[in-house]
Amino acid sequence: MAASKSRETTPSGADAALCAALAPLGMCLSRERAIAWCNDAFARMFGYERGELEGTSLERLYPSSEEFARIGERGLRVMQAGGQYGDERLMRHRSGRLIWCRVHGRSPAPAEPFALAAWTFEPLPGHADPGALTPREREALAGLVRGETSKESARRLGISPRTVEKYRARLMAKYHAPNAAALVQKVLGVP
Q: What is the chain's pLDDT, residue by residue, as a tens digit (191 residues)?
């Protein structure tokens, strides 16, 4: 049996377009936090057609202008340090309902990461109603889902660990969860 030769191939433009069209994750290319391009999976995830999103600010997909600004500031610092950023957060569907997403972004220019960045968005199933939470509760909950300690969440959010613990206690009361693990299970819809 002859040994097969390993060869490097560069996909054609048509192959790259097909890959983006078939990708199960939402993908977008942003310039200065505006959607320069997105695939159909991204548009469907948020209840839009591609043409309705391309050329518009990503802000319309955030629960609030404040969260758009706060997450942007945090993402900017992290991307300037390493060129990429990832988190789990709530985003807004066209209908107004909030959806959990895992988000990853990368920029070719860490000094100015928002000049051009590629992003993936993966919807995360859950049964908890995120619309009943304040923006800070959502951020504290996202840290808990990621497995962060109160100190780690506090550092990331720029607040005290005691404040994070207060948000977590409030969340456990809202979701009738006896502890943090049960809270995460309820939010993620794990039986």
A: 444 444 566 667 788 888 888 888 999 999 999 999 999 999 999 999 999 999 999 999 998 898 899 899 999 999 999 999 998 888 989 998 888 888 999 999 999 999 999 999 998 876 566 667 788 888 888 888 878 899 998 998 889 999 999 999 988 888 888 988 888 777 766 55
Rounded Cα gap, residues 175 and 127, in angstroms: 11
pTM of the model: 0.69
* Beta strands at 117-124 and 34-38: parallel, antiparallel or unpaired: unpaired
Torsion angle (degrees, nearest 10) of CA 99, 159, 81, 105: 0
Contact status, residue 106 vs residue 84, Cβ threshold 8 Å:
yes
- Alpha-carbon distance 162 to 160, whole Å? 5
